[in-house]
Specification:
By secondary structure, the protein is of the alpha+beta class. The chain has a domain at about 55-140. The protein has 4 helices and 4 strands; from the N terminus they run αββααββα.
Length: about 160
């Protein structure tokens, strides 16, 4: 398995970078408690923040892994849609799940008692996912692949 990094397009690099950053963000704090003093705090990372958190992160990573395998010319089984459609679709669903996790996080601001809310890991995952989805859509449009609902019906 060998890949020519210089032959990758800018969207390919952005997708791979977004996937790598999403993977790292999964290990960072996504939400938690911050007390009035720095000694009082606790957090939960992305892999432990619930189904939408880990599944969304995993889908973002898998879209990048699939693209990497394509560019490395690994023989893959036939898929029901083209590769650019799959990368864009899987990364979009992954970002949607991360956004849902962000919107459903508990948030409490109790003044001197501290606060509970989103931490920097989820913000990094959201940015990485947005970059990955944006680049995947650009790559999809440039590929000219038909969308699944635009393909002719087989009888």
């Amino acid at each position: 398995m060998k890949i020519d990094w210089k032959a990758l397009s800018t969207p390919d690099r952005m997708i791979l970078g977004g996937a790598a950053l999403a993977f790292v963000a999964g290990f960072l704090p996504w939400w938690g408690y911050s007390g009035p003093l720095a000694a009082y705090s606790a957090s939960v990372n992305g892999w432990s923040a619930g189904f939408t958190a880990w599944a969304g992160t995993l889908l973002l990573v898998l879209a990048g892994v699939y693209l990497f395998m394509l560019r490395a010319r690994v023989t893959l089984p036939a898929m029901p849609a083209g590769p650019a459609v799959l990368v864009a679709g899987v990364s979009a669903v992954g970002l949607l799940l991360v956004v849902i996790r962000w919107l459903t996080l508990p948030t409490v601001h109790a003044g001197l008692a501290g606060s509970i809310g989103a931490k920097y890991g989820i913000w990094i995952a959201l940015v990485a996912g947005a970059v990955e989805v944006g680049a995947a859509v650009v790559a999809l449009r440039a590929s000219g692949e038909p969308l699944p609902w635009q393909q002719p019906q087989q009888t």
